[in-house]
Amino acid sequence: MNVAVTVDKDVAARIDAALLERPDGILEMVAGKCEASLWQVFQRLPVGQAVAIAGDRFEELWAGLTAWGTVLFIVHTEDIVLECEGALPPGTSSHGYFNIHGDSPIGGHLKASNCARIVFVDRAFHGRRSCSVQFLNAAGNAMFKVFVRRDKQRELLTEQVAMFEALRKVSVQ
Fold first, then answer.
1. Phi and psi of 19, rounded to 5°?
2. Number of other residues whose CB lies within 10 A of the CB of residue 168
3. Please, are residues 35 and 67 in contact by the beta-carbon 8 Å criterion?
4. Strand partners, 12
5. What's the number of CA atoms in the CB half-sphere (13 Å) around residue 17?
6. Which residues of 31-46 are buried (b: 16+ CB within 10 A; e: fewer)?
7. Separation of alpha carbons 59 and 63, rounded Å
8. How far is residue 129's CA from residue 70's CA, in Å, rounded to a whole number?
9. What's the pLDDT tens digit per position in 45-103?
10. Of residues 173, 172, 171, the one with CA closest to residue 62
11. Fold for the domain defined by 48-172
């Protein structure tokens, strides 16, 4: 699968200006405003805020995420931002899909073969640290995202941050 996505100078300049104006804003909004993909926006973030690995490691990464406990699962399209809290159940590949079923509100059939990149994102979002693992398709847009949850004081769960950092470290070596 060809996953090369380049950022031309005009698009890069628009993204840079948008990020300078709102460095902790919603990246899909930056992408839309700049007529860019989410991947192109990730490429313009400061070093270390978006670290990518190949999408063919989908099942390996999913298996690591199942140990996190309850996460925030988000699907963000131009029409909806769907948020669901639950544990990621283990999955199996069959009939062209990665099938997830279990005792969780998160379930269904994911087209894992469409995953071109997996990006570990660690950046400020509306003034607070945010950590997520985002699965991108070949067009450079998010299939879905898995976020580290927050406690009642809106602070990231320490145990999940540690799991995020460990999975990122082991995955990018």
1. -70, -35
2. 19
3. no
4. none
5. 8
6. bebbebbbbbbbbbbe
7. 6
8. 18
9. 999 999 999 999 999 999 999 999 999 999 998 899 999 999 999 999 999 999 999 89
10. 171
11. Heme iron utilization protein-like fold (3.40.1570)
